[in-house]
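Per-record layout

source: Limnoglobus roseus
name: S9 family peptidase
length: 804
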Amino acid sequence: MTPTQAAVSLALFALVAQDVTGQATYQKPPQAILDVLNADLPPSVSLNPTRDTLLLIQSARYPGIAELAEPQLRLAGFRLNPKTSGPARPAKVTALTLMPVEGGHPRPIELPKGKVGIPDWSPDGKRLALAVTTDDAIELWVGDVETAKLRKIPGVTLNATLGDPILWLADSNRIQVRTVPANRGKVPEAPLAPLGPTIQETAGKAGPVRTYQDMLQNAHDEALFEYFATSQLAVVDFATGAVQPSGPPGLYTSSSHSPDGKYRLVTRLKRPFSYLYPASSFPKVVEVWDENAKVVRTIADLPLQDKVPIEGVPTGPRNVAWIPTKDATLYWVEAQDGGDPKVKVAPRDIVVKLGAPFVGDAALQNRVEHRFSGLQFMPDGDRAWLTDYDRDRRWSRTVSVNLSTPDTADADVFKLILFSRSIQDRYNDPGTPLSKRMPNGRVALWSVNKKVFFAGSGASPKGDRPFLDRCDPSDLGHRPERLFQCGDGEYATATPLTDDGTKLLVRRESPTDPGNYFYRVGDKETAITTFVDPAPVLRGIKKQLVTTKRADGVPVSFTLYLPPDYKDGEKRPTIFWAYPREFNTADTAGQVTGSTNRFTTIAGYSHLFFLLQGYVVMDEVSVPIVGPPDKANDTFVEQLVGSAKAAIDKAVEMGPVDRDRIGVGGHSYGAFMTANLLAHSDLFRAGIARSGAYNRTLTPFGFQNERRTFWEAPGVYATMSPFNNVTKINEPILLIHGAADDNPGTFPVQSERLYQAIRGNNGTARLVLLPHESHGYAAKETIEHVLAEQVAWFDKYVKAAKPR
């Protein structure tokens, strides 16, 4: 340990050695961690719709805590900057560069002042549109590939309260935007005294609600939400900058033109608002407008969605959208089970359609046996792929349907099954069908002569080997044509650039090389990018995929990382990091995920930074919870401990892991796992639990994949709650939580109460509440402090632990 490392550890040890309460100053981790933390990562890459140009996007990694501390409003599930009518933490792009796919010189784009957002490509791939957030507004900027220059559209102030305010129209010449209404007046002022009490009432009909955060609290919150969320729809001409308002101001959440451009599908929220549910559940109206913004047809007038069963869907039209291959035809889905997944009925959903001029009743298109989960369209205009989902079996099925032939009562809807598989079966995943823009600017499946491109992870017992296929899944006897397969010793993906699949964009990485892009024609590849290794010190890290079985025969896997300075034969202190997941069967639970051939990068508050402090890391330990979805958690604790024991036994047998010096950690549900493992086993010397939930009575209407309510399974909730078993937590635990956590169920009070329970029962714990941070942590000062806390905690209680 260097003098600097020792100083950091001693400073924090002084705090963990005694009972303390108060606010500390931000600490920094050892320099070896800071060097990697602050290294520039390669940019992200965006391929334009015509697949001839790459956009390299460099983004700011860690904002300062002062930026996070700026005033914000928490309304109806949104966190808003009241100065800009946009998100409290907008994206911040620091560099944009255009790069021809077929080779050529990079062309940087000069950026305007402010926080530059991620650009949106026009359908023809020749233009860009993006939002730029200044101190008091959000501006619209546009640019084109030919000049590689951006320009501001004057007179446009965007409103991003309810989501992305920018949408290109199909002609690539016009942009639909949501703007701040002109003359909207001053921000509503809070009353000096309340107008009266806040009242809620229920009338005997079940209305289960998740533990949402940032909900409206009073009439003033309602007024603020309406003020900031109200926007004006408008269309901006790219060439001239002319702005044409459309319709009255409203609480618009979406607006999209029909493929022929003659109609518009608009969704807007309306009162009454809710104090229990986010804006996505507020009453809403779905309308069809003509070119003059006149309402042609109201498709749905939906009430507050406060009676939707857990894991259910609302009744009435949902998933309303245009059929991209028709001039002006809508489709939508309607539940036939009251939206309740527990009701046994077939079909569970129906798909209907209605075309211009939108009069009369919608026509039945398809009966859907299980819950509708998607509709993808072939470019020929008559065929589509419909997918449903059986939640009890966790089973997905995709069928081919004819848009010109509606179902009849005796029709075998699922006669032509294209795919039928467990969603947890990665080994037999055919991949994701790729889409492409059609001449009308809309997106459909990328199909040529009935053959569709598929890209998949290529999961196998030896790790992922991504592939690119082309096939006609309706030709059941025909094997897919494999256009690309990742080779040994690397991790590579491919994207087709042409209809015939002869030209590909390939991205390659390996344990020693960062991901770079190549233009491939046949067997010849030409490098497009030359990204360099941002942290060469990490190349000394070795990693290995490990598989084993727990006592009941269920497979368990993990990636074993060895630190750069590791020498054969050594036994090192070890970090066990995991996140439990549920599976229906042992076979799917045991399938390997990930690849050891990927380039190792470490960023943020990652536990992999422990590798730079001499620790071995057991990462992504699978920790499967196997069983029927409605009963798997009945044996959660037993399966949790069994998985951990099996993984540790295997790692110790391999040599580098010191059984007497193992620490356990996790984030969110992984933190919940950590507290449970400390309570129900003696496998670990200490734990780190970040942003977790530990008392399940505070999430009484289900959590994670637990479908039963507290009142249906009180014993399960009690057994699974570390809070109830706090007297068994006899190892030190570090609790870290964002003080502004916005994730359902993980209120900061979860960590506060667990800390108090441990403290009141003679346990050893430390609680760190991070100012202004949400479920994930963003500020540079925060990330550095979290890393310092983690290292100091495990150095004291794991690395320095005496043999048992």
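summary: The CA atoms of residues 258 and 570 lie 66 Å apart. Residues 1-10 have pLDDT under 50 and may be disordered.
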